[in-house]
Amino acid sequence: MNEAELSELLTAPGFFRFLAQQAKLTAEEVKRIYLLGRPWGLWPPDLDLNREAAETGIDVYTYLAALQPLLDMDTTQKEAHLAVYEATLSGGETTQPIPAVRAYVEKVAALSGEDEETICSLLHALYAYRQRVGQLSIQKVSELSKHKIEQDKAAAIAKLQRAIVAESKQRKPS
Q1: Where are the domains of the chain?
Q2: DSSP state, 25?
């Protein structure tokens, strides 16, 4: 796991840099569009990661790792809705696009002066960001768990060795 990458992704510059790489835009362009289009619905609307993690008494990485299966389902649904809308942009035959997606993409495009394809690419980048942060959080929690197990094992072995030494000292005739 790359803990440095996870830490970087959770900063504003790291966030915008990741989105820029994914959307093939500059970080400045991404930041401008992102700020104009807020809120983007990166996380479900009722999810306040830092507050909820603090309320449960666990770190944000563990919280994200635990939520990842739900976030994966949400991302799959959002990507599917976006794909339906994108099909209309390319003139392909499709079912009626999801009105909320169309309204949002068109609103951000109008606010930013960018085309709808650019806004769609930024949405895909946001979903990729959410997936990457989730994957890295799962890896971090897994590594922390392994480290804790190793520490517990070492402590148990040391305790057992102390008990064996104490027992052997008691059995020695004085």
Answers
A1: 3-146
A2: S
Show the CA angle centred on residue 16, arms to residues 107 and 22, nearest 5°: 80
Residue type present at position 166 = A
- The pLDDT score that the predictor gives to residue 46 is 56
pLDDT at position 166 is 73
53-102 pLDDT, tens digit each: 778 788 878 878 888 888 888 889 889 889 888 888 877 666 676 888 88
Asked whether the bond before 45 is cis by omega within 30 degrees of 0, the reply is: no
**Sign (positive or negative) of CA dihedral 22, 28, 33, 39:** positive
CA angle 3, 143, 44 (to 5 degrees): 65
Looking from the CA of 116 toward its CB, the CA atoms found within 13 Å total 15
Q: Two tokens at 124?
A: 């895909």
